[in-house]
Amino acid sequence: MNLHHYIRSKTPFSQSAIQNTVDLLSQDSTIPFIARYRKELTGNLNEVDIELIANLYRSYEDLQKRKFTVLKALELQDVLTEELKQKIVKTSSLIALEDLYLPFRKKRKTKADVARKAGLEPLAEILLLQNEKHPEKKASEFIKGEINTREAAIARSQHIIAEWINENQSIRAGIRKLYTREAVFSAKIIKAETEKPGAQKYQQYFDWAEPLKKIPSHRFLAIFRAENEGYLKIKIEVDKEKALKIIFDDLIKPGNNRCASYLRESAVDSFKRLLKPSFTTEFLAEAKKKADEDAILVFAENLEQLLLSPPLGGKRILAIDPGFISGCKVVCLDEKGSLLHNENIYPHPPQKEGVMAGNKINTMVSAYEIEAIAIGNGTASRETEIFIKDNIVNKEVQVFMVNEAGASIYSASKVARDEFPDHDITVRGAVSIGRRLSDPLAELVKIDPKSIGVGQYQHEVDQNKLKSKLDLVVTSCVNRIGVNVNTASRELLAYVSGIGPSLAENLLDYRKAHGVLKSRQELLKIPRLGAKAYEQSAAFLRIKYALNPLDDSAVHPERYSVVKRMAGDLGIKVGELIGNKKAIEKLDKNKYLSEDLGIHTLNDILKELIKPGADERNSISTFEFDPSINKITDIKAGMKLPGIINNITNFGCFVDIGVKESGLIHISKLARGYVNDVSSVVRLNQQIIVTVLEVDEDKKRIQLSLID
Questions:
Q1: What's the pLDDT score for residue 634?
Q2: Which residue, among 267, 252, 243, has the nearest Cα to 164 in the 3D structure?
Q3: Range of 406's domain?
Q4: Which residue, of 163, 277, 474, 475, has the greatest Cβ tally within 10 A?
Q5: DSSP codes, 118-146
Q6: According to the model, what pLDDT value does residue 615 have?
Q7: Using one digit for the tens of pLDDT, what is the confidence trace for 387-409?
Q8: Which residues contact 677 (CB under 8 A, 6 or more apart)?
């Protein structure tokens, strides 16, 4: 099976779409570029579709590499028959490939090896054929050396048969189907660990069992974590009698032959000692892989929503990183996010310098022409919000609560040290909070996505797969919004299609040496930014006030000539065409279609011309918690409270209602009727009204509902 047929068998996409997409990927085209600017070649596949093809491309290459290794090993063993070779070549599954290789794989010395060395393989073959009427009498012929009885000869030969059963592809396929349909996943507490404090958080899983195929990813990963921590013991099992029947049906010939009883004993041994451990390992690994994929997908969806949070835009911002004993760090930022001023205020206990702190805030608001205030949502956030709203003189200044998850990671990073070498981590953290209000995407790309805190069990999942997926999400978001080439940070530029860290550094050096870029064409003057990188990146890099107005749009430079033709046909300049909806609607689309330019790309060009550089992110809005709720003891069952969703999982979502502890809306309390997908009902940062169901002050747990 070649690559294109392999992908075709696992996707609904056309052969031409697959082939063209694979060709583009092999030419180092990025997923955002292919999805946006090569729609005719891919049949208008979106980024998710292209990512799927890219993943299958890698899976196919991994399969081919493994086939090569297996074939080479079999050749060296001189056991590669033409029939076996063809089976290996034709297989499209790593599992099937490993089953084919299993009889020949080098392994540590087994009971079967010992029996073979004792010359018992012929006796095993006699038993397996089931033609011998007196197998015990036949076994007497194999008494020699350590084998001093016919019972010993038969028992040892059964070890060989057990291994054959384990390596039988038909039997393995049958038992694999049984595990797929009926495997039960169970967990039990290790008695010696029961009373340890850490064990209690897993109490509900002390004696747990459910069908493996139905276990949700969050529960599997929770139990998996508990086993890793030494509290639980995991098992994956099927009905033993059903498994043995599969073996018997394949192995035992009809009739009442004397050999059959020995084969049944071999089957029991093979299942217990070889097959069961093998399939336990296989299905545990597969369940872990699936749980990882589900958890990574949740994390990725949350991250995308967070990165695409509404920006306030270029405003002068006063940002506060709140605190009690150490006070509140205050910074003032200009429209570009540059630091203008910083100092501390102490409005809360133990200092209680409320009057002085209020005067300082109002002085800064006036002196630096502040238009908005950003308050981090950590310790003392509610108290600081109330203090600011009570003391601010200029009531036109909007006050926003900002999710500060990961700000401490940024403040201690090399990126932050390079930006603010003369300031400590408290200043850097406050700056990050303010910049997040201005442009969440531009600021959050400076932080490792895993540190942003919007996932579930991220430390239990495959870290390489998690990083790969999250990097794709950040890349997708950056390129969807576009980047101002003259103001973007190194970190933001590095995520642009075709750029990467090295070219981002070169671009910054060029900016320092030559000032602002005045055209996209000037990108080609940047060292090592060649034709390929220009093709991939140019349309995602925006140049404000460029000589060519299209340089501040998502129209690719390769299509500028088409836009110029459109303007010429209307008797106007390109600049007069941009944003001119009435003029654009007069154009005859068919006139501009060609073999090179299809309807999908043409529609994108026209849409962009109507609203060039349109930002898909919504407008930001202020939010107020219930002023009477400041701590968990203020919350009572039955209350209806405003809240903001700050994390989404497979089992529900967490809501900030203005106290230190976030409340949980279980998936069953999101809507009337069955809900399968939490993200289909709610979104990150969504403002909602919740009903309090239950408050456990000791365990600091708050149960909420979105159902009236």
A1: 95
A2: 267
A3: 317-438
A4: 163
A5: TT-HHHHHHHHHT--S-HHHHHGGG-BTT
A6: 87
A7: 999 999 999 999 999 988 888 89
A8: none
